[in-house]
């Protein structure tokens, strides 16, 4: 009987093998996927910019997360 850890390792390896064959995607796609998670996690307004996500917190603090493809 396989252990749960071994099963998870096999699943992770299978997903990694599939991910290696995926075509490259733009950095903005990554930010669009992350933005809703940030809205759920933080008490903040989240705004999308060009290659960035900006968080506006109720205390006036603003943070900008940026992404760019590194070749």
Structure report:
The protein has 71 residues and is an alpha+beta fold. The protein has a domain at 25-71. The chain contains two helices and three strands; from the N terminus they run ααβββ. Strands 1-2-3 form a three-stranded antiparallel beta sheet, with helices on one face. The mean pLDDT is 91.
Give a quick set of tags describing it:
71 residues; alpha+beta; 3-stranded antiparallel β-sheet; 2 helices; 3 strands
- Count the beta strands: 3
Structural class: alpha+beta
- Low-confidence blocks of residues: none
Instruction: Provide the residue-averaged pLDDT.
Output: 91
Query: Strand order within the widest sheet?
Result: 1-2-3
Written as H for each helix and E for each strand, in order along the chain, the element string is: HHEEE
The main β sheet shows up as: 3 strands, antiparallel
* Shape, principal axes of CA atoms: flat
Tell me the Rg in angstroms: 17 Å
Q: Span from first to last CA?
A: 43 Å
- Report the portion of residues in β strands: 15-25%
Discrete helix count: 2
Fraction in helix: 40-55%
């Amino acid at each position: 009987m396989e252990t749960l850890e071994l099963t998870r390792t096999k699943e992770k390896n299978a997903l990694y093998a599939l991910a290696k064959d995926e075509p490259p995607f733009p950095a903005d796609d990554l930010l669009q996927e992350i933005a809703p998670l940030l809205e759920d996690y933080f008490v903040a307004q989240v705004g999308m910019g060009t290659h960035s996500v900006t968080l506006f917190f109720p205390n006036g603090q603003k943070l900008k997360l940026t992404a760019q493809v590194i070749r």
